[in-house]
Design the sequence.
């Protein structure tokens, strides 16, 4: 019987992993110098003293970029799934609590001051952490803790960051403006080394999977979860901090890419239901794959010019999502 | 009085909502085999008291013990293995099937990495069968009627297999036939092993028919608790509901009707 959850999990993971592998190959082969699969294989297995040009192209440019796109997609989808459960609001996304706003203010400050890429990264990390702690302490406040209070605090802090961002855009010189806009829309042009993002993703998945059944219960209401033996207070803070860190790392890697964190968990939920043991790993794989494909398109459709990847995620995501929503299917 | 036979005991329990007292210095002992009814006017704090007894909110003062052990010293998971709670409303922000919902009753028994076993599945299926929900097993809960959802919540509680059930209006949304069917199920359940239940009801006559003990919440912290035949008297009930009652009796038993 295919509806047995473990069978469903294995089938889903196999097909999504295959899709991820295919999209990785596709992404590596596309670009200013198109490579066939056999050329890719040649470059990959080449072990001479003189590296091939294709080999350099792949290991130094395309592979790091592809891996960071995959990692960021996975991080955003996982963070989005966690936020939706934490706030029990299907409209929540990783940015709803203001983490990306804080990161953006940090990064834009670095650009405004004309500082280098080290400061840009540090600025966005600091901004994200600051925002996270600010929302945490304000929402915690005097005892009582509700999803609504957390949501409202996050939304208001977000609005504050947005105002600061608009202010910075207004006062910055024209030559820095383009960089700022790309950063705000999300871009892998300067994303650099994917190691930290991949590691964070791995750790995030390992931390979340044992909590998956608890998260499914939390989605049914805090009291119901507690009555079935979930330590709700501890669980909520754990997923708040996990989701916030995942988002901070994603935003630092590539700016605030929209849509993935909101839509991927929804797509999985429409197709497979809300069992978090399926939802979390499937969201990570689908989020990574979608962002990898979107980034490949972003750097190739109007080459040599590049588009911000956020434009592609929205353009592809909106119609696909609306189609699935209309079909309204759940077996 | 042995420790094993008392499933729930309260000592000098004070519970309040804001400034309003619900019970004052309550001494309650629910033993295995007993079925308790909790009656009171709207807003007098029945649900709050149930939630407090289940450990979901703190009491102002006093002790609650579950099978002889203080509630405060038990982990949530241990509490959930001994005590199950039926809520007045079920929340479904996210979609799930009837079978999935029933299976959450097994959560207290599973380790973080564990999946529901075949035995867990069978228990859930048996509970669905008992409440005539088996044909709906694959349906999404949002497509169910109010009464079907209520029966699903009770099936989930049966799957949880607690020793003590606290039920907040188990007859909510049910037609007469299903009211009796569900209460018969719960009565049968309470006869199997060391089990007991406490339920809030608005129907005095169902309380008379199914419960051997009753507690009346008068407000202002006053609670009268004891055997049904001693507590569910016309005088007590008229004072409880601030409404005059008829009492009628026949060979089938006794009933009260509002004047």
Sequence:
């Amino acid at each position: 019987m295919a509806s047995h959850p473990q069978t469903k999990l294995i089938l889903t993971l196999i097909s999504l992993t295959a899709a991820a592998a295919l999209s990785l190959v596709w992404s590596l082969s596309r670009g200013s110098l198109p490579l066939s699969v056999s050329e890719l294989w040649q470059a990959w297995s080449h072990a001479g003293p003189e590296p091939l040009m294709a080999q350099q192209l792949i290991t130094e440019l395309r592979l790091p970029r592809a891996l960071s796109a995959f990692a960021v997609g996975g991080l955003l989808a996982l963070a989005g799934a966690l936020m939706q459960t934490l706030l029990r609001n299907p409209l929540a996304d990783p940015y709803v609590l203001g983490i990306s706003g804080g990161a953006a203010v940090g990064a834009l400050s670095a650009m405004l001051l004309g500082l280098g890429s080290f400061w840009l990264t540090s600025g966005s990390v600091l901004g994200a952490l600051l925002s996270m702690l600010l929302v945490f302490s304000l929402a915690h406040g005097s005892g009582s803790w509700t999803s609504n209070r957390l949501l409202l605090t996050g939304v208001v802090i977000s609005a504050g960051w947005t105002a600061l961002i608009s202010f910075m855009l207004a006062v910055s010189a024209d030559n820095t403006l383009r960089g700022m806009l790309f950063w705000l829309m999300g871009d892998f042009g300067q994303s650099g080394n994917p190691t930290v993002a991949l590691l964070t993703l791995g750790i995030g998945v390992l931390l979340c999977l044992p909590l998956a059944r608890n998260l499914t219960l939390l989605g049914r209401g805090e009291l119901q979860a507690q009555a079935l033996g979930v330590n709700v207070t501890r669980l909520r803070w754990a997923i708040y901090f996990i989701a916030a860190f995942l988002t901070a790392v994603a935003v630092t890697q590539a700016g605030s890419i929209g849509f993935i964190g909101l839509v991927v968990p929804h797509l999985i939920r429409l197709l497979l239901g809300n069992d978090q043991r399926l939802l979390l790993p499937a969201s990570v794989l689908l989020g990574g794959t979608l962002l990898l494909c979107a980034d490949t398109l972003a750097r190739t459709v109007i080459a040599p010019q590049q588009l911000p990847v956020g434009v592609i995620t929205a353009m592809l995501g909106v119609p696909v999502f609306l189609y699935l929503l209309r079909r309204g299917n759940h077996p | 009085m042995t420790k094993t036979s008392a499933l729930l005991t309260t000592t000098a329990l004070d519970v309040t909502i804001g400034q309003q007292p619900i019970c004052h210095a309550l001494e309650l002992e629910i033993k295995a085999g007993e079925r308790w009814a909790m009656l009171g006017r709207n807003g007098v704090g029945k649900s709050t008291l149930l939630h407090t007894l289940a450990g979901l909110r703190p009491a102002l003062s006093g002790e609650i013990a579950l099978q002889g052990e203080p509630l405060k010293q038990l982990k949530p998971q241990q509490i959930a293995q001994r005590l199950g709670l039926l809520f007045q409303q079920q929340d479904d922000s996210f979609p799930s099937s009837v079978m999935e919902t029933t299976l959450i009753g097994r959560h207290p028994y599973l380790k973080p990495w564990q999946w529901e076993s075949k035995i867990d599945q069978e228990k859930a299926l048996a509970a669905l069968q008992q409440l005539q929900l088996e044909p709906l097993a694959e349906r999404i809960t949002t497509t169910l009627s109010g009464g079907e959802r209520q029966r699903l919540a009770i099936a989930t509680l049966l799957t949880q297999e607690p020793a003590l059930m606290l039920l907040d209006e188990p007859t909510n949304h049910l037609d007469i036939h299903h009211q009796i069917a569900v209460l018969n199920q719960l009565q049968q359940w309470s006869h199997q092993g060391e089990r007991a239940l406490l339920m809030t009801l608005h129907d005095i006559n169902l309380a008379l028919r199914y419960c051997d003990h009753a507690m009346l919440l008068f407000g202002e912290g006053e609670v009268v608790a004891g055997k049904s035949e001693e507590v569910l008297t016309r005088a007590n009930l008229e004072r409880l509901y601030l409404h005059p009652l008829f009492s009628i009796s026949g060979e089938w038993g006794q009933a009260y009707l509002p004047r």
